[in-house]
Structures are given as C-alpha cells and as structure tokens.
Specification:
Rossmann fold, 55% helix, binds thymidine-5'-diphosphate
Length: 205
C-alpha cells in the first residue's frame, strides 16, 4: 500500500514569523518516518523564483501580479508538489493559494471568484493542513522593520493593507475551519513552538 502523503502550508502576513517554524515542522515530519519536501511561494521552481524576483520588486498592474502568482504556482504544482505527493512524500510549503486570496484578494481587491477560477485552472489542491500565523499588523511591521534591510514591494505596504490581508486570511479560516488552524503569533516563541508541535500531533501523527 502506498503511504499517505500530506500537504501542509504555512500562512500569515509579512512579519508574522511563519518561516521560523519550517525547520521544526520538517524535523517533526522526518521523525514520523516520512520524507518531506520543503518549498515556498511565490517560487519553488527555477522559473517560479524568476517570477518571484519580478513580482516582489517591480511595479505592475494588480491583475498582472495575480496572474504571475498563479503562473509560478502552476509550475510549482506540476513540477514539484504533485510529483512529490504522488511519490508518497510530504510537502511543506511556505505560502500557497490562501496567500493569493489574502494578498491579491483582501489586500488588492481582486474578486475572490476570479481567484477561485484561477485556483481551479492550475488544479491547486487543497492542503491537508494550513497553519495561519495571526498577528496584529503593527507588531508585524515592527518585526519586519527590525529584520529586513531591503523590504520588498509588499513589505513596504501600509498598515491598512495588512489589516485587509489579515482579515481575508481570517475569513478563509472561518470558511475552512477543519483545514486552517489559527495560531496566535504574538505569543512567546517557546509557547508557539509547543503549540505548533501539539497541532501536528493532534492532526497528523
Ligand atoms: P514571504 O513569503 O513573506 O517571504 P520572505 O519571508 O522572504 O519575505 O514573501 C512573499 C510575499 O509574496 C509576501 O509579501 C506575500 C506575497 N504573496 C502574494 O501576494 N500572493 C501570493 O499568492 C503569494 C504566494 C505570496
């Protein structure tokens, strides 16, 4: 019997601290005796990383930005995510389709129906588990200012942009309560790490 692969995604506004947990989560998966592919969006493939450079640093129309996110995602799904899952590996992605609903949908105002159509078009599968690192945008922006010398296009956005992104993420979580777990990312790091491991144990062990 082929092993059951799992697809896990991490989400949150810039500065929410999701990336801090990647190593710990991938170690947890390895300790379950499973192989894991760690990846990210936008990016995850040589082509996607080129698009990431463009989309994170160049000014462009909102629909162009949206389409580039999905172009990178399409390549990512077809050449990295699906092949890995089909081989029984687990996939851990730093951001996925929820980010488009939050940033392009919530932040920029792109209609969610369009995003749903694009997600269907690229055959984006629904993750088995999404950890949403939730935090007040003011705290997140302070963290970004302290840790990032050259902020990208999104990191330079104003607080109200991140309020909208955060609200869209929380709406996604309300609409998908079985999949998306909201984590209070303002908690201290030790508690946060314990929370993440407890969720993995409860949901996926
Ligand atoms: P991020 O994942 O925060 O990487 P880093 O930690 O290196 O800054 O940055 C990616 C940015 O891309 C982030 O601001 C959110 C944005 N983004 C979208 O706007 N839409 C998407 O669909 C995805 C995947 C990301």
């Amino acid at each position: 019997m082929r092993k059951k692969s799992r697809f896990i995604t991490l989400e949150g506004i810039d500065g929410a601290g999701k990336s801090t947990h990647i190593k710990k989560i991938s170690d947890w998966i390895t300790n379950q005796g499973e192989e894991v592919v760690c990846t990210r969006e936008p990016g995850g493939t040589p082509f996607g990383e080129k698009l990431r450079e463009m989309v994170l640093h160049e000014k462009m129309d909102i629909m162009s930005e949206t389409l580039l996110m999905f172009a990178a995602r399409n390549e990512h799904i077809k050449t990295v995510i699906e092949p890995a899952l089909n081989q029984g590996k687990w996939v851990l992605s730093d951001r996925f389709t929820d980010a488009s609903f939050a940033y392009q949908g919530g932040g920029r105002g792109v209609n969610w129906d369009i995003l749903t159509t694009l997600a269907t078009w690229v055959e984006a599968r629904t993750p088995d588990l999404t950890l949403l690192f939730d935090i007040d945008p003011t705290i997140a922006q302070q963290r970004v200012a302290q840790s990032t010398a050259q902020p990208d296009k999104f990191e330079q956005e104003q607080r109200y942009f991140f309020d909208r992104v955060r609200n869209a993420y929380l709406e996604r979580a309300r609409n998908n309560p079985d999949r998306i777990v909201v984590i209070n990312s303002a908690a201290n790091l030790t508690d946060l790490k314990t929370t993440v491991i407890n969720i993995l144990n409860e949901r996926l062990a």
